[in-house]
Predict the structure.
Amino acid sequence: FKARVHDVQNPVAGLAAHRIEILEGELEAGASLSAQVDSEHRYQAQQAHSATHMIHAALREVLGETATQAGSLNQPGYLRFDYSYPEAMTAKMRAEVEEAANLAVRNN
C-alpha cells in the first residue's frame, strides 16, 4: 500500500484526519501503516511558507499596517498570497513590495 497525503486537519483535539490519494494497492480496515516524509516536497513547502511571511512583511513595510493577510495557498512551486488593502496598488507600490521581498530573500 502506498499513498500520498494531500491534507491533514485536526477537527477535534487529539484527532488528525488525513486526506490521501492511493497510489498503489488497497487500504484495508485494521491494516498497519507506516509513514515517510517526502523530504523534497517538504522542503519546497517550507520555502513557500517562508515566502508567505516575507511577502506579508514586505506589503506591510510598503503599504503600512492596513495591509492584512486574507489567506494564502502554499504548494511546492506555487504560492498565492491573498491580502486586503483599502485601495488599488499602483505599479510603483508593486515594484517596492517586490524589491522588499527580494531583499528579505537575499538576506536570509
